[in-house]
Amino acid sequence: MIQELTTYFGHIFEDALLHEINQVGTFKEVSEGSTLIEIGQYIKSMPLLVTGVIKVLREDSHGDELLLYFLENGDTCAMTLSCCMGQTKSEVRAIAETDSKLVMIPVQKMEEWLAQYKSWRNYVLETYHSRLNELLETVDSIAFLKMDERLLKYLHDKTRVTNDRIIHNTHQEIAYDLHTSRVVVSRLLKKLENMGKLELHRSHITMVTH
Amino acid sequence: MIQELTTYFGHIFEDALLHEINQVGTFKEVSEGSTLIEIGQYIKSMPLLVTGVIKVLREDSHGDELLLYFLENGDTCAMTLSCCMGQTKSEVRAIAETDSKLVMIPVQKMEEWLAQYKSWRNYVLETYHSRLNELLETVDSIAFLKMDERLLKYLHDKTRVTNDRIIHNTHQEIAYDLHTSRVVVSRLLKKLENMGKLELHRSHITMVTH
DNA sequence: CCTAGGAAGTAACAATGGTTACATTGCCAT
DNA sequence: ATGGCAATGTAACCATTGTTACTTCCTAGG
């Protein structure tokens, strides 16, 4: 396990901390679609994302979803961090967008390390910083963009995190993430196709490189 | 100054830290409407809010605004925290909603204190935690509520933070905060008045207690 | 090869919110 | 008291998004 740890976190953490993580952390592989964190759940251990993509969702009062942001290599979920520290329930759902590898850290270690390791403090603060900024970007999208622009941004974000210009999702799945209806997504996708920004196929979309 | 510090922060910080804050902090009074932090600005010192209310805003590409949340006694701006640590520009604007008293802390002290004081670490983490949750609530409002519900929530939030069921704002000012137009606000306020939830007057609104 | 069911296309309509334009009202300063 | 201006009321219209109700198309599994 130390191998993948040093590869992905070696430039972030001190050696002593890497060793501790190696000691107390649990390696975990999850496959696409599996739920890592559920709303209302107490968090017993914090996930560091080694490889893969995780999507973080919010749920409304009817059980409908809204994508907040994607997590990539080296990221961790600030909401989770937040829950761990405060011993509160999770306010979000986290789902593996692709097959992913994680290192799970027991909660009690986290506070110790905050006092002990400067690199851990920086990592935690940096995590909060980027997650706040990502949430701000999410607010921008929802508040300031029209649905067609949000859709296009969503598709671009998706190609970026998966590093694949083919998006393997149905219109219904996209509609869930954007908190709208399948018909609206189909309508706007067709418009974007006519504008030459993408190609529509059954169960997948190919983004046109610009 | 130590007087107001102990009153409002005595239960949060250790004595030694309170003394340090007293040493290095600068007391500052600002009046309603003054801008504390501007978008794009680098932060040289971090404000602790002693008394008053601060509103935190986001701006779109046309310069139009959107209220993110209010800060109250004992709060600080997580976005600012975040900027201090990362030496990045502010992504938000902060404006005094009422006359307010602040203690300004030089940035370089903050990192020292993180290593040194457990109460400071807890405060910083707690701040991030609540700000993240407030941003999530903002996302909920924008994404899941219709404009009339958002408006009512806004008015209730406002009465809560100012502890005054009379809201001293014009429809235009409310429209700016909600990122909509004055006509829409007037229309919906009139609807809410007909529903018996509030009374409209010139330049102020009285909320009906339910 | 055929068929059932999921996925996508599309039309028609409703609801919400944004925009323009103008009328009315209250209030302050002179 | 009154003229002027900011604040509010309101109507009419438009654009966007949501909804319903179909049809058509594709593909996996028999």
Automatic annotation (TrEMBL), chains A, B:
Sorted UniProt keywords: DNA-binding, Transcription, Transcription regulation
Gene Ontology molecular function: DNA binding; DNA-binding transcription factor activity
Cyclic nucleotide-binding domain boundaries: 28-117
Alphabetized SUPFAM superfamilies for the sequence: cAMP-binding domain-like, Winged helix' DNA-binding domain
Pfam families found in the cross-reference section: cNMP_binding, HTH_Crp_2
GO cellular component: cytosol
Domain HTH crp-type: 149-206
Protein name as catalogued: Crp/Fnr family transcriptional regulator
Origin species: Pelagihabitans pacificus
